[in-house]
Design brief:
Blueprint: H1 3-83, H2 87-169, H3 173-186, E1 191-195, E2 198-199, H4 208-216, E3 221-222, E4 229-232
Helix pairs in contact: 1-2
Amino acid sequence: MSPQIESLLVLQERDTRLFTLLKEIANLPKEEAALDLRLQTAQATFDQKKKLSMSLESDRKKIELEAQSKQQQIGRYRQQQLDTRKNEEFQALGNEIKHAEEAIQAFEDQQLTYMEQLEIAHKQLALDAEVLKKATADNQTGKATIAQKKISLEKSLAEVRALKQEAEAKVEASTLSKYQRIIANKKENALVPVRNGTCGGCHMKVTAQTMIAVKADKDLVSCDNCGRLVYLLE
């Protein structure tokens, strides 16, 4: 294998590490967004269940006040019965008392229903509170981990960039320029091996002339199909 191919392989290995690091760093905001989304979802669920519990409690209290109002109304009717001397008025007040008592019974039945619903809502709210608590803790821990990961990745990135510069210095300017053009165009390896007459990049058969040139290992050889630089895998 020629020295220039060896130098390019070293450079390519460092470029691959560089691209991997850049990709990982670029993905960090997505990891943070995923943590935030989980927390936002937990918060929204908790708020929704809390609102439901408050609404049920408010409705229950309204029913309770309605029942108390009817109870007070009954008290007034009974007092009016004591004060009246008219039989018809006494009976009419008795009917009103009966209707108020029936209303109170209906209110009490509704209160029982609300209390059952509240019990279920409170249990679910407690579970959602635990989910929210865990999501909050995970969000804080996760972001701290991501921050540390970013520091580590950026340190590695600086190291690999320095190593890449060293590798580039060992490649001829014209060869480096061609390599960089292929990298920019393909967004992946510019230098690939030929195995069994097949290009390791596009996986197409190379021509016999290209195969002869690759075996000669004197000059840089490009794949006839994809334009990548090729070398013979020994």
